[in-house]
């Protein structure tokens, strides 16, 4: 059986279930606190994106972006003609998290 990628993972759900998952994750109900803190910790600012030269925006499983002047954390994914994302206003370096 062929796969689209060695490490590809599929996730299908309704919007309500996706919201519930990211809320549970950000509130510490999915992984233990040490792993969650690692998910909200970016590499040292000296680590740069190899294409853009911007500071690294990926942590252990999550990424951070600025949308509309607000920092959000989440997970994105995609394959040919398909892209999805789950984001929420995120975390400070100290780990305070909010997910509405």
Automatic annotation (TrEMBL):
Origin: domain of life: Bacteria
InterPro entries named among the record's database cross-references: Beta-lactam/transpept-like (IPR012338)
Protein name as it appears in the record: Uncharacterized protein
Source species of the chain: Streptomyces scopuliridis RB72
């Amino acid at each position: 059986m062929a796969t689209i990628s060695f490490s590809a993972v599929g996730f299908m759900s309704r919007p309500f279930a996706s919201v519930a998952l990211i809320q549970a994750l950000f509130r510490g109900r999915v992984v233990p606190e040490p792993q969650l803190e690692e998910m909200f910790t970016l590499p040292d600012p000296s680590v740069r994106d190899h294409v853009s030269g911007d500071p690294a925006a990926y942590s252990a499983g999550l990424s951070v972006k600025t949308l509309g002047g607000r920092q959000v954390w989440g997970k994105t994914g995609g394959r040919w003609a398909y892209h999805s994302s789950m984001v929420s206003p995120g975390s400070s370096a100290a780990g305070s998290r909010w997910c509405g």
